[in-house]
Amino acid sequence: FHFYILFLLGFMSGLAAGQGSRFMNATNAPAVISGVMMLQQLLHATPRGIYWGFISARATALRLPQQSAEDLALMRLACLSRVQDDKGYKELRRAWDSLGSREQAVLVDHFLCDGLEDRALVLEFLPACMANAKTNSLVGLTILLEVLVDLLSNLWPTVLSMPMADTTQMIAVDLSDMSDFIAAVQNRFVFQTCVSRCKYHFAGDRVRVEMTGGNWGRTNDPDTDMTSLAYIVKDVLMKQQIMEAYIMRHS
User: Fold this and answer.
1) Considering only CA atoms, which of 38, 144, 162 is closest in space to residue 81?
2) What is each CA distance from 213 to 128, 152, 177, 181, in whole angstroms?
3) Which of 39, 149, 158, 193 has its CA 20 to 30 A from that of 19?
4) Rounded CA gap, 74 and 107, in Å?
């Protein structure tokens, strides 16, 4: 066990290569230390306790709320999007608050499933998707989260029909193709509707999301007035739903 911890520390220190350790600096080290401290409880605590203990430790370090289910889901998203300060969290929070109540509920359910007691989809390459979405000004975090809700809503019925669905608690979903697509797409509406043109490939307890030629062939479509209008209409409807939900909560 101690050898594993030493190996993990060495592996994390070697990320980004270069002379010395480019990764293990004053900004990244606290998260690694928190993870190692949680793993020290491996022989005494439950897997769920260790995992959520780490999430709680990150929330405490960043001085973020952790009282509600939504707080914990946001903290998971913060870890996945590599949030390291209050500025990064506020950017994520603005994107979250731009979602409708249904979209938020879908994401809370997804990010609270642990794969131990609740069946969970493990979205591989999601951190890369979020990093590329923040870099691509035509996508952004809000639209990525909307597309993620669309993906989860379409993927779950298909996953539950898999032969191994009844015996598998964690199903890995490869989003590497989507990550590359997010970096390349130059049309907001094409990305918003990309899930309708995706294909799912199953192998055992894994799913690979293929963007297909229907999406890749449209990466360079110009962001025309019509596509901008379609986005604006959807944005107005989303804000109307948010306002209606707010009125319902306070009436």
Assistant:
1) 144
2) 21, 21, 12, 11
3) 39
4) 9
Q: Determine the residue type at 190.
A: V
Measured CA distances, 88 to 64, 78, 81, 143 (Å): 12, 8, 9, 17
If you average pLDDT over residues 190-212, what whole number do you get? 92
Nearest in space to 145 (alpha carbons), one of 157, 133, 158: 133
Q: What is the pTM of this model?
A: 0.80
Q: What is d(CA 124, CA 130) in angstroms, rounded to the nearest whole number?
A: 12
Predicted confidence (pLDDT) at residue 180 exceeds the cutoff of 80: yes
Instruction: Give the integer Cα–Cα distance in Å for 71 and 221.
Output: 38
Largest CA distance in the chain: 60
CB 31 within 8 A of CB 8: no
